[in-house]
User: What shape does this take?
Amino acid sequence: MKTNKIMIRKMGSFDVLQRTTDSYFDANALLHQWNKNNKRRRMDDFLNSSNTKEFIDALKDEVIANGELSPLGDIQLVKTISSRMTKSGKARAQIYMHPYLFFKFAMWINPKFEIQVINFVYDQLIEFRHEAGDNYNILTEAVAKLKNVNYSEIATAMQWIVFNKRGKDLR
Assistant: This one.
């Protein structure tokens, strides 16, 4: 079992909280930051809109198709951790969303904010691509040092590690 950590990532001037165990984002934390200085938005308005409900249905189908079910076999794209009483008053509930749903939520908050979301996703894609390229170079240098290497078998093993299956055009 992985230890759960909360990563704090920047999206424009906002702190975005993401869990390491399932990659879900705390949407309520972002909404709270947004509502401090901007036009007030309500989580229920987003979750109850017909557009969001259609998106959630489509995302559930995608999650099922990709085999991304929880160990219990359920599909929870929105996970709420109820608020609790503290000495200073009632704390905010944590509403964790599947990353795809979270990005849709963040873009819903405000059209001007949408560009920050796109930049956030785009920067991460470029960063990961560079990191993968750098690690590929390290991997190929290490493999080249081995004697009697069957590169086809290594490629097949890598497909199993990365994609949990093998075949053509997986990347």
